[in-house]
Specification:
Blueprint (H helix, E strand, L loop, with lengths): L1 E4 L9 H5 L4 E3 L5 E5 L2 E2 L10 E2 L5 H10 L5 E6 L18 E4 L4
The chain binds iron/sulfur cluster.
């Protein structure tokens, strides 16, 4: 599973960081970014701003997306790779989840 943030919509309230500080962080501009291996992916709009979510943080990331007031946390699920993930997704964020199945 991967996650990215549309910084243009971020309100900067920091709720995502409260939910999962290992995946989300705020930079000096007050806006939230995803991070990977401890480093912020701060190149909005590029494929480099898409962070891989470790399995142990999947649930926290989904909760962050559900509570995000800017509705700007987007999740990509790789159907074959993530088939074993046991996650329940609230209908509120269904539009922000992209299920990819490149093999199909
Ligand atoms: S919860 Fe959403 S709006 Fe709030 S800081 Fe995180 S990404 Fe931005």
């Amino acid at each position: 599973m991967r996650v990215w943030i549309d910084q243009d919509l971020c309100t900067g309230d920091g709720l995502c960081c409260d939910h999962c500080p290992d995946v989300f962080m705020q930079l000096e501009d007050g806006i939230a970014y995803v991070k990977e291996n401890g480093h912020a992916l701060n190149d909005p709009g590029s494929s480099g701003s898409l962070a891989v979510v470790p399995v142990r943080w999947v649930e926290n990331v989904i909760h962050a997306a559900e509570d995000c007031p800017g509705e700007c946390i987007f999740i990509e699920i790789d159907a074959p790779v993530d088939a074993d993930l046991d996650v329940n997704v609230d209908a509120r964020i269904a539009a922000r989840i992209d299920i990819r199945d490149d093999a199909a």
